[in-house]
Amino acid sequence: MPASPDRLTVNPLHRRSGDPDSISKHRLAETGMEPLTAFHAVRDETMLDGNARLNLATFVTTWMDDEADELYRGAFDKNMIDKDEYPQTAAIEQYCQRIIADLWHAPDPDAAPATSTVGSSEACMLAGIALKRRWQHRREAAGADTARPNLVMSSAVQVCWEKFCNYFEVEARFVPVSAEHPVLDGPGLADAVDERTIGVVGILGVTYTGAYEPIAELQRALDAIERDRGLDIPIHVDAASGGMIAPFLQPELAWDFRLPRVASINTSGHKYGLVYPGLGWVVWRDADALPESMVFRVSYLGGDTPTLALNFSRPGAQVLLQFYLFLRLGRAGYTEVQGESQRVAMHLSSAIGAMAAFELVSDGSTIPVFAWRLREGHSENWTLYDLSDRLRMRGWLVPAYPMPADLEETTVQRIVVRNGLTMDLAESLLDVVREEVAYLDALESPLPRPTSGQAFAH
């Protein structure tokens, strides 16, 4: 009997007495199966997933050491919201918050409001709400209306900011990127902001290329706007990736709370924080930057629980893993781990940039991420989408995608180097890239099946 796409076939070697030989994928069966049978059925279903270590598309941590895995297994059941039941997990969350606030030069790290989240997207939402509330409170105190708030950002911003503006009824104002200004660097701000602007988002590690937006230059531009027009506009730094890179690899770079306009910063613990997904962090400069109205105090399981989150119940294990890494690595260890990722990224970008087919868009000297494009006029027979397909056949996931609005005619490929991509693996990847480029360059006509569909979306 042929396999049905609606049913999951159970391997006869894994079936126990009484277990079915197949089961619906889309409807709950009347009876279950033995745990080992269910275990093997699920594991077999995931066999076609890619090798996470060879996934160079994702920023998310795909490997931790054995001690972290053991700690994780022992904390699966901890609910981060239940601070009364798990007071030490709650205390460890505060330890992490203060460590991160100190890394980012908060004026008083012990008093800086902060919270863990399930990822940077939630952290960005909370930071955006705080900007909106602060703007509303100032307008109300001045007797002005609070309609039509707007948020200014680069058109290369991560999609979570578009979600924030959609969900929380804020006008998204995008400053276009261009070949001359591939990031938000000051020009264009004056035309975008007005008295209804709740803030400006600067990105420390643009998703498309890894580039840093110059937060200090954004502050200078906003200082000039305040002098000329009296508009006092704060900055939120979306440091989803760079927030755990810059303090260690570019410690002299002023991007954080050293800049007085920076009101809040977020990062992903599960990206270059080196923790399994999902974990994010958001820190505010001080109590004035976080409206008290955003903090809820609820009675939960017999205790009074202050909560600052969009989610309620969420895992606490990742918070413990973050503290484990802070203890295990320290500042020197994080510097070494992130520095090795950057060394691998720079090696890869240098080798790819030296190939006749390619031209670098970024080189990995900010976060360990770089992108390249096909050199103009190199070939009419293949595109970066074709190369992405060829690499996928060899097990490597290296996405090709168009740049953001106003640069969408440019297609790039990008590699994200994370802890676990060793120099030996990088050399293996370069060998594969050279082989596949040679194959594509040898084509006498375009491939018979077009492969130029977008292979990756942000």
Automatic annotation (TrEMBL):
It comes from the Bacteria. Pfam families: Pyridoxal_deC (PF00282). Residues 1-25 are annotated as: Disordered. GO terms for molecular function: glutamate decarboxylase activity. Its cofactor is pyridoxal 5'-phosphate. Residues 16-25 have a biased composition (Basic and acidic residues). InterPro entries: Glutamate_decarboxylase, PyrdxlP-dep_de-COase, PyrdxlP-dep_Trfase, PyrdxlP-dep_Trfase_major. The keyword Lyase applies. It catalyses: L-glutamate + H(+) = 4-aminobutanoate + CO2. Keywords: Decarboxylase, Lyase, Pyridoxal phosphate. Its EC number is 4.1.1.15. NCBIfam families: Glu-decarb-GAD. Belongs to the group II decarboxylase family. This is Glutamate decarboxylase. It comes from Leucobacter allii. The lineage of its organism: Bacteria, Bacillati, Actinomycetota, Actinomycetes, Micrococcales.
